[in-house]
Amino acid sequence: MDQKNFIVAIVLSVLIIVGWQYAFPPAKPPVNQQTASTPNGTPQAPTGQPGAPGTQGTVQPGAPAIQPAQIVSRTEALARSPRVTFDTPELIGSINLKGARIDDVRLAKYRVTVDPKSDPVPVLSPVGSEHPYYAEFGWSPADPSIKVPGPDTLWTADRTTVAPGKPARLTWDNGQGLIFALDVSLDEFFMFDVKQSVENKSDKPVTLYPWSLVVRYGEPPAEGIYILHEGPYGVFNGSLKEFGYSDFKDNKQQKISTTGGWVGITDKYWMATLVPDQKQKVDVTLKQTGAGKELKYQIDY
Description:
Order of helices and strands: HEEHEEEEEEEEEEEEEEEEE
Strand order of the largest sheet: 7-12-19-18-15
Structural class: mainly beta
Strand content: 35-45%
Low-confidence stretches: 3-59
Largest sheet: 5 strands, antiparallel
Number of helices: 2
Helix content: under 10%
Mean pLDDT: 81
Shape: globular
């Protein structure tokens, strides 16, 4: 009898969820009236992209840089800069040596359609493609005269591929006695580990503030499932906090100090997350910048 009641409960739960979505279907996203088109009908990409502070002494991550004027295919966007590639049982993709961005991550076991020969599902995508979405790591200087790497910096890699147990080191010399380094490793599942370091060969001390960020262009269409969160969220000081995209309208932002936890952006199935040192206090910012074609969301610490 208990087993029958359990089965009936499951069936009723499914009917409630299906009935709710049938009775209250998600609203269709409005047509973006600000989208411009090229002569061949291809929408133009945003004219600015968030990135690392450059050499102007910016102390907050996310300074604008120039984005290519036209959206191109993913393949063409990836071919615009040198890359360090990876190919594991779970992930396929590459790291952009221009800006040291993790901006090409595809899921090896999942396809965009039911056709097993269709493309792998993309999670992160490069600037120039239709929906840029990437992770970036950098520093802000206390002294504005100190040059730090930015979105256009071309890094040097010690290997052409990164694989589990075989990390890659990216380096950049600022010409002022500082050598910046990112040691990027990848496990056999989905986790990247990025270690930031700086070697100071100058004759004076230098103060730098390291940061990490994830940027996403545009607001994805919601799947319309009321029991599922989509958007920015994270665990701060042991508590889960969820934010809707509407919480950041008019360039609003959230600032949170936390020890431990993580911050991310999630869709129905996939999530991009930053996980800082769990013993170190960090300052987290979640924000929206721009509007229309230049709308973007950023999480950083």
